[in-house]
């Protein structure tokens, strides 16, 4: 198992500033090389500050394409939706065209949404940057311990997730194999609540987060609170 680079910042503010700059730098590099930038957004609460920082930088334009690593099966306008969080914090006010911002249609139910999203992703090559959070049990996106992580070579690109241990129980998630089709995978992990899972990951335990890695780079962007003392 390849462990990520552990990149530790003094606090979440320093992490967010560095990460927002890195996202923009990667966008410039991808656009210079291929004319477009494909970014996968993380859900949960941790990336909210990053999306606000990208909004402050007026980040994004018509050459950006925004995807989601997972979504909660709630109505499209529900504030608990990962897509609504990102739209409100950054995307709705950005210069990224609505056609380039692709929420997972999770309001249609996990099965239907997974099939639809897989169809949209079929036309997309490798992502440039995949952003992911991590839960206290080591889950990432909506890939949970005890569930299918989609890390088999023949796994589908998108999974319908049922009975998820983190509410809501019905979710949609990109599989590990599809998330791994990315140049860079960047985990954003803050707070002492994540220490135990990080220790388990560092010890080589197989966790959902441990089977997701980029082709060129895998980095865990951490604040000091999350980093186990003495490590
Ligand atoms: C979700 C997320 C999930 C999240 C982790 C961490 O929809 O809930 O995609 O994987 O990233 O649970 O959540 P926090 O950032 O809120 O700790």
Describe the protein in words.
This protein is α/β, with parallel strands linked by helices and 231 residues long. 28% of the residues lie in helices and 20% in strands. It is built from 6 helices and 9 strands. It has helices spanning 12-34, 48-56, 82-89, 110-121, 176-179, 195-202; strands at 5-9, 37-41, 64-68, 70-72, 127-132, 158-161, 171-174, 182-189, 217-223. It has a 6-stranded parallel beta sheet. A 3-stranded antiparallel beta sheet has the order 4-7-6. β2, α2 (48-56) and β3 form a beta-alpha-beta unit. α1 packs across α2 (48-56). The longest helix is centred in the first third of the chain and has 23 residues, at 12-34. The chain is globular. The mean pLDDT is 97. The structure holds 6-phosphogluconic acid (6PG). 6-phosphogluconic acid is lined by residues 42-46, 70, 72, 82, 133-135, 139-142, 166.
Q: Give me the side-by-side strand order of the main sheet.
A: 1-9-8-5-2-3
Helices and strands, in N-to-C order? EHEHEEHHEEEHEHE
Count of helical stretches = 6
Overall pLDDT, averaged?
97
As an assembly, this protein is single chain
Helix content: 25-40%
Give the DSSP E fraction (strand runs of 2 or more residues).
15-25%
Low-confidence stretches: none
Distance between the termini: 19 Å
**Structural class of the secondary structure composition?**
alpha/beta
Bound ligand species: 6-phosphogluconic acid
* Computed CA radius of gyration, to the nearest angstrom: 16 Å
Characterize the main sheet.
6 strands, parallel
Give the overall shape.
Answer: globular
Number of strands: 9
């Amino acid at each position: 198992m390849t462990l990520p680079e552990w990149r530790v910042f003094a606090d979440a503010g320093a992490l967010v500033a560095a990460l927002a700059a890195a996202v923009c730098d990667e966008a410039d590099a991808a656009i210079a090389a291929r004319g477009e930038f494909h970014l996968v957004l993380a859900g949960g609460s941790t990336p909210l500050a990053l999306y606000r920082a990208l909004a402050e930088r007026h980040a994004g334009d018509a050459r950006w394409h925004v995807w989601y690593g997972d979504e909660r099966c709630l109505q499209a306008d529900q504030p608990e939706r990962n897509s609504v969080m990102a739209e409100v914090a950054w995307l709705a006010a950005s210069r990224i065209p609505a056609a380039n911002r692709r929420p997972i249609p999770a309001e249609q139910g996990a099965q239907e949404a997974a099939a639809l999203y897989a169809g949209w992703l079929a036309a997309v090559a490798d992502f440039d940057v995949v952003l992911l959070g991590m839960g206290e049990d080591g889950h990432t996106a909506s890939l949970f311990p005890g569930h299918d992580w989609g890390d088999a070579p023949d796994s589908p690109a998108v999974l319908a997730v049922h009975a998820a241990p983190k509410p809501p129980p019905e979710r949609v998630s990109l599989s590990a194999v599809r998330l791994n089709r990315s140049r860079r995978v960047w985990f954003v992990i803050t707070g002492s609540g994540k220490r135990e899972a990080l220790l388990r990951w560092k010890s080589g335990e197989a966790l959902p987060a441990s089977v997701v890695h980029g082709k060129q780079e895998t980095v865990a962007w951490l604040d000091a609170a999350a980093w186990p003392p003495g490590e």
